[in-house]
Design a protein that fits this description.
By secondary structure, the protein is an alpha/beta fold. The protein is built from 14 helices and 21 strands. It has 2 domains: 149 residues, Alpha-D-Glucose-1,6-Bisphosphate, Chain A, domain 4 (2-Layer Sandwich), CATH 3.30.530; 297 residues, NAD(P)-binding Rossmann-like Domain (Rossmann fold). Helix 10 packs parallel to helix 14. The two termini are 31 Å apart.
Length: 460
């Protein structure tokens, strides 16, 4: 049997470390984002007998992997044993060790045996070890980072989330659940939507399931038409505007009319609010820009006014380019860059205001729990980069060349009107307000963020 072991310090007690693993959402938070794993069945707990059923990529094939939890001991640990899968044997022990200063240490100890005996060890031994190194380094970093944010929380909150099935919302819900908060997904009501306990919302009329939002502590509003899919013809632009502006106004009015309204409404917006600004450094005090996307963002933020008038604290998230390999811009770029066909877009001089997914989650949690945060807030990392630097950095992290530029005229012909605001606008945005209230970025540099989310070790 080969063995793997990693032990890391965690900023909470052993009991709280165990509780984090036992809460809903931990399974999703610990899944490496670069792995193309198909989840067939999530475990409903970490208690004895609970099972996870996955399909995992092994070379060009997908293999069924069934892991069963055993040895459940609150505050101490639990085990995973492979019942079916790619290994000849697999036994993973999760252990939580108390430390003298009130912190703890997380230990992952894996005993495994590859199939095919000596041949399997010779062919796959090094590769298996590298994958374990990548996976557990990521898991420990996420656990420590999440606990550092969660440790600042007050009592558990009830949080309603619109767009909870989307790119950002689908990641936010597990993050909030592992903090001990109760997440209420707000789904669009339709003739095919079963009422299975979700909050049902009709964006066209503002109608919400009767009483479903009464007494929630916070609402995070992320729903809206995807601006990066399809060409911006007039019908698409109407859907973008209506799904953001009109739906937000109706939701804000609904919240304002509740007998027990939420204390805070956290509503998505975008750095497109600033328009194309060249090399100008932009903060929340900067003026708005011009163009369709800037017009939408202005109206989008103004649409939250009914909630503000009712005394609800409103935070407008001016989101930059969210980086995560499971979706968004990075997901689209990975294939050409991995094939060695990546490079700058157009001149490459345009500024990109990026932010790692983990920091979006942490900063949303900060907005929910920090009473001093209100109004527009730039959700971007403190170190924006030019597009050419972004391409060089991604190529370096992937160990691939990044010298094939995508001509601006070709992208404009392919994407249409959306090419300029999505690809060529230069927005050098800084997170002045987040920094002023003490938010600490987990990934402040682009290379560090990419290495973390792609499981790539730091350069020697």
């Amino acid at each position: 049997m080969a063995t793997f072991r990693l032990r890391s310090r965690m900023p909470v007690t052993a009991d709280e470390l165990f509780a984090w693993h036992a809460r809903p959402g931990a399974f999703e938070r610990l899944a490496p984002p670069w792995d193309d794993v198909e989840v067939i069945q999530k475990p409903d707990s970490i208690e004895d007998g609970a099972r996870a059923v996955l399909r995992v990529p092994i070379g060009p094939f997908r293999v069924r992997w069934v892991a069963e939890h055993r040895e459940y001991r609150p505050g101490v640990g639990f085990d995973d044993i492979q019942a079916e899968g790619p290994f000849a044997a697999w036994h993973h022990r999760h252990r939580m060790h108390p430390a003298e200063d009130g912190a703890s240490e997380l230990e992952d100890h894996v005993e495994y045996r590859l199939p095919l005996g000596f041949l399997g060890r010779w062919l796959g031994g090094r590769g298996a070890r590298r994958q374990l190194d990548r996976m557990f380094a990521y898991r420990h970093a996420v656990t420590a980072g999440d606990l550092g944010v969660h440790g600042e929380r007050p009592t558990p909150l009830r949080v309603a989330v619109t767009g909870s099935g989307g790119f950002l919302g689908g990641t936010l819900a597990p993050f909030l659940a592992t903090a001990g908060h109760t997440v209420r997904p707000v789904r669009r009501a339709s003739s095919t939507t079963p009422d299975t306990g979700n909050v049902l919302w009709d964006p066209a009329t503002g109608a919400v399931t009767s009483g479903a939002l009464e007494g929630v502590d916070a609402v995070v509003h992320l729903a809206g038409e995807n601006i990066a899919s399809g060409r911006w013809d007039e019908a698409k632009k109407r859907r973008i505007y209506t799904s953001r502006v009109e739906a937000t106004r109706l939701l804000a009015s609904t919240l304002a009319g509740l007998k027990e309204p939420p204390r805070v409404l956290v509503c998505a917006s975008a750095v497109g609010w600033y328009g194309d600004r060249g090399d100008e450094a932009l903060t929340e005090d900067s003026t708005s820009g011009r163009g369709f996307l800037a017009d939408v963002c202005r109206a989008w933020e103004q649409a939250t006014q009914p909630a503000r008038d009712a005394g609800i604290r409103v935070v407008n998230l001016r989101l930059g380019t969210i980086l995560d390999p499971r979706g968004g811009a990075l997901d689209k770029l990975l294939t050409p860059f991995r094939l060695g066909a990546g490079g700058r877009l157009g001149s490459g001089r345009q500024w990109m205001s990026w932010v790692a997914m983990d920091d979006v989650l942490g900063a949303i949690h900060h907005a929910i729990t920090n009473e001093n945060l209100a109004g527009p807030v730039n959700y971007v990392a403190p170190a924006p980069v030019r597009n050419a630097e972004f391409a060089r950095t991604l190529g370096r992290v992937l160990h691939r060349p990044a010298f094939l530029p995508a001509p601006a005229f070709a992208l404009r012909a392919l994407v249409g009107e959306a090419a300029d605001p999505l690809l060529f606008w230069s927005t050098r945005v800084l997170p002045a307000r987040l920094e002023s209230v003490g938010y600490r970025f987990r990934h402040a540099t682009l290379e560090g963020a990419l290495r973390h989310m792609l499981g790539r070790k730091e350069a020697a």
